[in-house]
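Help needed: design a sequence for this.
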């Protein structure tokens, strides 16, 4: 039966689980009494959370068991399910790479011709090898792929690399980045109008949160003669706000800058004459 509660599938345990819950929380969606329940209704929103294994999320969303899901692009690609990818979420960033024992030589992907590669992502790997006209023996292994070269089960592995510490502690080195991945929000292709509306409302909130994360609020003081140069350095939401200080000949400048050019901007501001620079996190931006 069609309900008017939007059901979101998220990872029960693993690299995306906490961040997915955090995103909902920062969007003002309350999920209390979260314990070991697999299905739980949000306190203040027509949203239900379904906690499952990340590998199951694409199928659940495709089949409409869940309406939307938060899952890694890598998992979607491997699943080959039909889903709408609504939005990149900016967390769970990782690479999918081929790695070999540290002491082994590497020239190019052609080196893997006739070699054994172990992976939990055989479809993505086979596509990549085919594109590069290399034929290798791809062995599917569901977990602990990184130990296979050490026990002579494989010449190389293809797996997720995030910090790189798993590779390092298993004496492996990353030699070929096949693709980059991050958490995305996916939706079933046939959502009802009511559910689309609920999804839009959630997106409005999560976008405000994510936009805020990418930006900083800056306050600084400057002598008036330095203002033209400082204002030029600072594109605000409209333009920076400039207010006179009680101290004659000085002003205070407020603005928002993106995290990306943050350090470069700060140095330029200092050399342009800015003093007492304060940098504050922003909670939400409603453009
Ligand atoms: C991945 C991968 C590695 C590890 C790499 O597993 O299989 O074991 O993360 O991360 P690192 O570079 O930070 O060490 P994941 O946590 O996704 O678990 P799963 O494969 O069981 O879903
Ligand atoms: Zn997994």
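Sure. Designed sequence:
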């Amino acid at each position: 039966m069609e309900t008017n509660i939007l059901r979101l599938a998220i990872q029960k345990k693993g690299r995306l689980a906490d961040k997915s819950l955090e995103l909902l929380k920062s969007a003002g969606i309350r999920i209390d009494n979260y314990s070991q329940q697999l299905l739980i209704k949000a306190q203040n929103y027509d949203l239900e959370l379904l906690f499952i294994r990340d590998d199951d999320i694409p199928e659940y969303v495709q089949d409409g068991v869940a309406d939307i899901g938060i899952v890694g692009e890598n998992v979607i690609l491997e699943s080959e399910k039909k889903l709408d990818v609504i939005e990149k979420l900016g967390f769970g960033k990782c690479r999918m790479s081929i790695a070999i024992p540290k002491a082994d030589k590497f020239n190019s992907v052609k080196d893997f011709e006739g070699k054994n590669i172990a992976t939990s992502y055989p479809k993505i790997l086979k596509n990549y090898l085919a594109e590069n006209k290399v034929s290798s023996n791809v062995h599917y292994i569901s977990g602990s792929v990184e130990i296979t070269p050490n026990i002579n089960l494989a010449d190389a592995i293809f797996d997720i690399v995030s910090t790189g510490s798993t590779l390092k502690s298993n004496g492996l080195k990353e030699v070929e980045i096949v693709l980059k991945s991050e958490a995305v929000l996916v939706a079933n292709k046939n959502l009802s109008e009511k559910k689309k509306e609920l999804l839009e409302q959630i997106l409005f909130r999560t976008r405000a949160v994510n936009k805020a994360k990418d930006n900083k609020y800056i306050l600084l003081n400057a002598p008036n003669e330095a203002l033209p140069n400082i204002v030029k350095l600072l594109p605000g939401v409209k333009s920076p706000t400039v207010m006179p200080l009680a101290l004659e000949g000085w002003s205070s400048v407020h603005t928002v800058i993106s995290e990306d050019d943050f350090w470069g901007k700060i140095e330029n501001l200092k050399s342009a004459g800015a003093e007492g620079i304060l940098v504050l996190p922003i909670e939400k931006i409603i453009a």
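Helices lie at 17-26, 57-62, 73-79, 122-131, 165-169, 193-213, 227-233, 262-271.
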